[in-house]
Amino acid sequence: MRTSIDCIPCFVRQTLEAARFVSDYPSVHEGVLREILRCLASLDLDRSPPFVGQMIHRRLRELTGNPDPYRDAKKRHNRLALHLLPELKELVRKSDDPLKASVLLAITGNVIDLGAHGDLTEDDVRSSIARTFSEPFHIDIEHLRKEIGKASNILYLADNAGEIVFDRLLIEELPAERVIVAVRGGPVINDAVMCDAQAAGLQDLVRLVSNGSDAPGTILDDCSLEFQSAYKNADLVIAKGQGNYETLSSEEKNIFFLFKIKCETVASHTGFKRGTNVLTRVSRSRGQPEGATTGE
Question: Which end of the chain is more exposed for a tag (fewer CB within 10 A), N or C?
Fold first, then answer.
């Protein structure tokens, strides 16, 4: 998925928010913003938004001297999600369809995205949980259930810190001996890295790998050989978040995407309305998400 000019304001907003995370001085905010605006003026719109995001956040870390501007926010969101985990597990346990419930809750966790919502609060997360089963959704659950049953190797691509605790609900519904969970290889926005997966306790459930990349998505040629091997050997990939959709939606691979549609650019690309919770697989013949049941 190529970068739209409508992505530019989002990149500018992310730049200011990250600068304000690491400094209280307006002069620093202005200097960072001016530098990133120069970068944006020459960017290649044929590359995916996560490619551009990687470039911006690398430069941002250099300019601020902070290797992980979102570190404290990630720790805070992990603590919040772990505090909520017993309640979330009970929702899955009481459900008539635990797989579907865990999918919906995993998508709910995708609200913890500081790239899209830099001002996210604990109340926002709790409100999203309360709306999990009533918000608009597009869920291809029976297709996913069938593919899980057939798959010998399942690769689960995590997205954000905090959200990765919600992912645990779905991961626990999968055959653990056939699952590998991948996280980012370096800090970028609030995306999950290895310590976040360990904070969620996933090392006790499945094999964990780093993808070796600091892009807020999965740019395959930027990933480690270990990750590329896991990706090649997987006959089912479950990919969380818009960043993974933006980088992998054109891949010839059995990929199910789980995320909340947060912008009009992705809404237009998928054909679903902004705000929709999605579990879908892209049709290679049509380049659009395949049909499934829709709920309100």
Answer: C
30: domain CATH number? 1.10.8
Are 50 and 247 spatial neighbours (Cβ–Cβ below 8 Å)? yes
The residues that bridge with 160 in the sheet, in sequence order, are: 191
What domain count does the chain have?
2
Considering the entire predicted model, what is its pTM?
A: 0.91
Domain that holds residue 16: 5-64
Which has more confidence, 257 or 295?
257
Which distant-in-sequence residues (6+ apart) come within 8 Å of 291 by Cβ? none
DSSP string covering the chain: -PPPGGGHHHHHHHHHHHHHHH---HHHHHHHHHHHHHHHHT--TTS-HHHHHHHHHHHHHHHHT-S-TTHHHHHHHHHHHHHHHHHHHHHHHHSS-HHHHHHHHHHHGGG--TTT-TT--HHHHHHHHHTTTTS-EEE-HHHHHHHHHH-S-EEEE--BTTHHHHHHHHHTTS-GGGEEEEE-SS--TTB--HHHHHHTTGGGTSEEEE-S--SSS--GGGS-HHHHHHHHH-SEEEEESHHHHHHHTTSSS-EEEEEE--SHHHHHHHTS-TT-EEEEEB-TTTSSBPP-EEE-
